[in-house]
Write a structure and sequence with these properties.
The complex is a heterodimer. By secondary structure, chain A is an alpha/beta fold. Chain A has a single domain (2-294), classed as Ribonuclease Z/Hydroxyacylglutathione hydrolase-like (Metallo-beta-lactamase, Chain A). Chain A is 15% helix and 25% strand. Chain A has 5 helices and 15 strands. In chain A, the strands form 2 sheets. Chain A has an 8-stranded mixed β-sheet. In chain A, strands 7-8-9-10-11-12-13 form a 7-stranded mixed β-sheet, with helices on one face. In chain A, a hairpin with a 2-residue loop joins β7 and β8. Chain B has a single domain (9-129), classed as 2-Layer Sandwich (Beta-Lactamase). Chain B is built from 6 helices and 5 strands. In chain B, strands 2-1-5-4-3 form a 5-stranded antiparallel β-sheet, sandwiched between helices. In chain B, a hairpin with a 4-residue loop joins β1 (25-29) and β2 (34-37). The radius of gyration of chain B is 15 Å and the shape is globular. The chains are: A alpha/beta, B alpha+beta. At the A-B interface, β8 and α3 of A face α1 of B.
Chain lengths: 300, 135
């Protein structure tokens, strides 16, 4: 599998000169499976650039939404394949007792918020409420489970060709509990993340910021690190950066994260902060290459 | 990969809530196993959850009761937890329980079913000692 980050920012896009290196687009991850097909995780504003880069394909394009907060769906309206009549797009997302997935997304893709109604999208689009279980997409086994965040929210695990990616971008597993002390069965998202080749996880707040945001649905750095360490993740990609965190701030946070990860017994090359356009190649349960140093690209 | 050992998120969040409360309360899984009780409940029962661990319905009943005013066991189907688990509706009752120190307490208990996206997951039971108030 190949993983590429198209948006790593949380809450709201944060464009500007202060955020050019880590990027200002909101959550979107592209996973290229072993057969070349693509699974997209979330549709934040990062999906716009992904849509431009994607080559037209006859295979259905699967978009797995963790939840329907705006920073995870805002890019849908600007995702080029949705406007190609020949494209087939399958959108997965959490079920809700309130309304169907399609109807909930249509609240965004409809007047007065957008000039296009859902029924006017020229592509073949379908909606599937992801059961909190597992299913197959091409060569990949997909697992979904509800996780601790505000409102119906899923985390995903994608397994293909001996490697696994766990994606839990909005997650507060330490709310009201100490992650270091809880038994595994009581930790939200634990099984999804267990021994993942790559764990992409919420780390929106510093530990000092977290007390002011308790219950907002996001993790402080320490909880992301402890979860990664306890689940035995091979690589941890810290994600969903706070829009107030500048590149310089995130550089400092990256250094702190590495030092603390090592304090927990990990290696320094196992943890990093997600940056836009970062690519990771996963082979046989390990991160096989580190294109970050090979293909440095100017940020958009 | 089997994802079977994970508790449903509704139970995880319920445990987090109960562990933060000073109201005595316990949490039961769908099959009726007592999977958690908080520190306040432990104070009444005479032992912390970390010491007893999970309890089957039989272990719970044999250890703590509940009993009526005459000391007779209350039938399972009349207990608030059973009502919440089997009838999927709230249950409420006043009864006596026995702590591990063998002292008896009169308590008032309310059980609420926990229903999530995937359906019925278990129940929460809140209880208050009422003997201290009335005596």
């Amino acid at each position: 599998m190949k993983v590429e980050v198209w948006g790593a920012r949380g809450s709201i896009p944060a464009p500007g000169p202060e955020t050019t290196r880590y990027g200002g687009n909101t959550s979107c991850i592209e996973i290229t499976l072993s057969d070349g097909s693509v699974v997209v995780l979330d549709a934040g504003t990062g999906i716009r650039n992904l849509g431009i880069a994607l080559r037209p394909t006859e295979q259905p394009l699967h978009i797995l939404l963790t939840h329907l907060h705006l920073d995870h769906i805002q890019g849908l309206m600007f995702f080029a394949p949705l406007f190609r009549p020949e494209a087939e797009v399958v959108i997965w997302g959490p079920a809700s007792p309130e309304a169907s997935l399609r109807d909930r997304i249509a609240r965004y893709i409809s007047a007065p918020l957008t000039p296009v109604e859902m029924r006017e999208l020229p592509c073949q689009v379908s909606f599937r409420e992801a059961e909190t279980t597992e299913w197959q997409i091409g060569p990949a086994r997909i697992h979904a489970a509800s996780v601790a965040h505000r409102g119906p929210t899923l985390g995903y695990r994608v397994e293909d060709d001996g490697s696994s990616v766990c994606y839990i971008p909005d997650h507060e597993p330490g709310l009201g509990a100490s992650l270091a002390e809880l038994e595994e069965e009581w930790i939200s998202g634990f099984d999804l993340a267990r021994k993942a080749t790559l764990l992409i996880h919420d780390s929106q707040y510093t530990d000092d910021e977290y007390p002011e945001h308790l219950g907002w649905g996001h993790s402080p750095l320490s909880d992301a690190l402890v979860l990664g360490q306890r689940t035995g993740a091979e690589r941890l990609l810290l994600f969903h950066h706070d829009p107030l965190h500048s590149d310089d701030f995130l550089d400092a946070l990256s250094g702190e994260a590495t030092a603390r990860w090592q304090d927990l017994g990990g290696r320094s090359d196992q943890v990093e902060l997600a940056t836009e356009r970062r690519e990771l190649e996963l082979r046989a349960g390990t991160v096989a290459s580190d294109p970050r140093r090979e293909t440095a690209q100017p940020p958009l | 990969m089997e994802l079977s050992s994970h508790r449903p998120i509704e139970l995880i969040l319920a445990r987090n809530l109960l562990s933060s409360l000073s109201t005595p309360a316990f949490l039961a899984s769908g099959p009726g196993e007592i999977i958690f009780y908080n520190e306040a409940a432990g104070g009444i029962l005479g032992q912390r959850f970390e010491e007893t661990g999970k309890l089957s319905p039989q272990e719970w009943t044999n250890t703590f009761g509940p009993f009526d005013e005459d000391g007779e066991p209350i039938p399972l189907e009349q207990q608030p937890l059973t009502i919440a688990l089997r009838a999927n509706r709230p249950g409420h009752a006043v009864y006596r329980i026995r702590s591990l120190s063998r002292s008896e307490r009169k308590i008032e208990a309310s059980a609420l079913p926990i229903v999530g996206i995937d359906g019925f997951q278990g129940a929460m039971v809140f209880f208050w000692p009422v003997d201290e108030v009335t005596e």
